[in-house]
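TEACHING EXERCISE
Course module: macromolecular assemblies
Task: Read the component lines below, then compare them to the predicted structure of the full complex.
Student: A.B.
Group: 4
Components provided:
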Amino acid sequence: MPIRIMIFGQLTDILNSHELTLTDIADTDALVSELNKRYPSLAGARYMMAVNKQTVTANTILKEDSVVALLPPFSGG
Amino acid sequence: MGEKKSYERYQRQIILKEFGEAGQEKLLQAKVLVIGAGGLGCPVLQYLTAAGVGTIGIADDDTVSLTNLHRQVLYSVNDIGLPKAERAASVMQGLNPDINIISYNQRLTVENALEIVKSFDIIIDGTDNFSTRYMINDACVLLDKPLVYGAISQFEGQVTIFNCCQESHDKPVNYRDLFPQPPKEDEVLNCAEAGVLGVLPGIIGTMMANETIKLITGIGEPLINRLLTYNALNNQVYELGLSAREETRALIPASEILFKRMDYQWLCGVSVSSFEIDGDTFDELLENQTIEVIDVREIGELPFVYEFDHQNIPLKYIGDSVQEIKSDTIVIFCQSGKRSKTAAVQLSGIFGTTKKIYSLKGGIENWKKSHSIQQS
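Instructor-supplied answer key:
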């Protein structure tokens, strides 16, 4: 069950990529802990999460071909 | 004569059937405040001026520097060292002498923000730091003003309209629904530290001007409750739906008096975890100091707490109850430690460094468990 993860802004420096695919991830909580395990500095980073183009705050079930986006805050103007 | 000339000036947009003379009249009546006359602010100001927005405010306390010129296209080398708000106003007036331009050559602060924001219908955030962005967001929520938001980082930009409802949409979303607490200023790099491609704020700022014009004239589908991200390197555009969050409201000062007590710069220098104390530290504080303990749960929420003195101020009222808080050291608790953290951040924004404010980590549930107290 592949989950596509899109990474924005300076989070790409932590995850070394604009896009990742992970398999066997049941929900967003599991995704966060898996990502934190792989990329420890992500744990201290601030970002919001969207699943299939809608922001989520509570734990959300991920289905086949779910697309998750991780967006950090931008301050520049 | 004046009217004929003005028709001629705007003729190319008036002939658009969706826009028409009615659209032009709406622009003429509109009052828009642009905060930050930098990379984003410049294109916003230029296009709103050209389009004929009747009253435009510019708030910026900065002066023009050579490093600005690769992206802040209103200014020239002759402007270096001069105030941006005044230079922008002068260039804009040259472009369109028929509109009313008000320049505020001052930094927006909790003291002056509400008075300035009140005189305008739509607020545009083109600032470059989190403390001002959170302050503008809170001011717009408090005064019920739509906020056209744009921000950039290196090659990417974000645009949306906050605090605005169309009939078909439900609750208005604000910036704190995305990021409830400000990051520390050094947590996210700004343009000066991380760099920015000069044309990027041009693109994002132009999108902000476009959203503003759509909002004023009622044409098209403005980015209400939707965030658009744009990547200048690969032209990827990604649009997200945004949702309001119940808990956000408690973070925003509920009145003008409370707003003026906020210390946004300080708030941006503090990490949320620094408020938290564990049960042992709490016990020590209870023994050794005159502290005030506040329960921010709802009235009557279980378990009841008989073990120490405290007062009950539900989270939603905490901002209104600051007069009741007298001690210099405050410990806040709730069921699990989540609401109390929110309250701690909110009170810290109000009291700044004048009081020590703590949140009991793990909440009363955890504290009772560690003291082997039967849950009542």
